[in-house]
Amino acid sequence: MSEVYAARRTRLRERCNAGGSAAALVSRPANVRYLAGAAPHGAVLLLGKTEDLLVCTGPPGDAPGEGRPDEALPVRALPGPGGDPAVAATGLAAAQGADSLATEEHHLTVARHRAMRSVAPRLRLTDLGGAVEQLRVVKDEEEISCLRIGAEIADQALGELLESILVGRTERHLALELERRLVDHGADGPAFATSVATGPNSGRRGHRPTDRRVEEGDFLSVCLGATYRGYRCEIGRTFVIGTSPADWQIELYDLVFAAQRAGREALAPGASCRDVDRAARQALDSAGYGENLPALTGHGVGLEIDEDPQLSPAAMGKLDACVPVTVEPGVHLPGRGGVRIDDTLVVRPEADGGPELLTITTKELLAL
């Protein structure tokens, strides 16, 4: 993997040089991990004028969630506690003879930026912007493989839960069980806080589990994700508990399923992000649920659970091949509940079979 990380740093260095900066300081943890292979707590990456360095508060550990540093990348640990790697790296950049340093201003605090200026007053600090985030959008096959394994783990955890007794158990208990199963099957941990929503809570995006107990006839909506080697995917499904679904539940489910299918089928290299959102939103909007729809239909995933691109009405840009995204339309009816269906897919050209579905748990409306 050393060659992969080195190639990523080279691409970033070329962008910096084109913008007039001889060096760059990367501080956002996901970006550090993308370029260095690991992101120990508080670590920063210096793309220096003469040498690249991973600057840490101490020697990197071996925690699964932190990754393993690129063996070809020198590591500089601060000599004592209480130091700031970003400030130390700024001094190192100046010592290497750089006259400018591009920084991630969107991640740095004002106080931290001020401290960096004070340690190297002659060094011109510029804004790197979202350059690393832009590089991260298109994934290589190794990254997609990690997402694929994470999806398999999430599918397995969800499948096992569906085989257990659900009536009488609380949302909170089911969420904790799902997160335990993710780790049991090899995940670093959950990709985000698992959402389990029942009855009137179902279908609500980002619902935090409560002590409400599962009841007969409830909609049960679940959204979970696994992190594997730092890469995060997600899946969301909705079921009916213990009985045949009511007519209104079948009608609402069929509408959301049709919307989700339309969004999935719209994924293709060159497709507008806005058009994908429109494809999924249109069926629900025309059925009168426009006011109940979330702000976006989906988003990119990777080292973070919410990355570019965004699939929303105001989204700019087009999709590329090898971009993993979610398609997750849903409708929540206050006081009644709702439906959410969420998949992680990879954009692929038609010649390669079209979008690759990573999360494969059935989308049939099951009565559990």
Please explain how this structure is put together:
- The protein is of the alpha+beta class and 368 residues long.
- The protein has helices spanning 2-18, 29-36, 85-95, 110-119, 131-136, 141-162, 171-184, 247-265, 273-289; strands at 23-26, 44-47, 52-56, 75-77, 100-103, 124-127, 189-190, 195-198, 219-224, 226-228, 231-232, 235-240, 298-300, 307-311, 324-327, 330-333, 337-340, 343-346, 356-357.
- The strands form six sheets. Strands 4-3-2-1-5-6 form a six-stranded mixed beta sheet, sandwiched between helices. Strands 7-10-11 form a three-stranded antiparallel beta sheet.
- β10 (226-228) and β11 form a beta hairpin.
- α3 runs parallel beside α4 (110-119), α6 (141-162) packs across α7 and α8 runs antiparallel to α9 (273-289).
- The chain is elongated and about 70 Å long.
- 47% of the residues are buried.
- The mean pLDDT is 95.
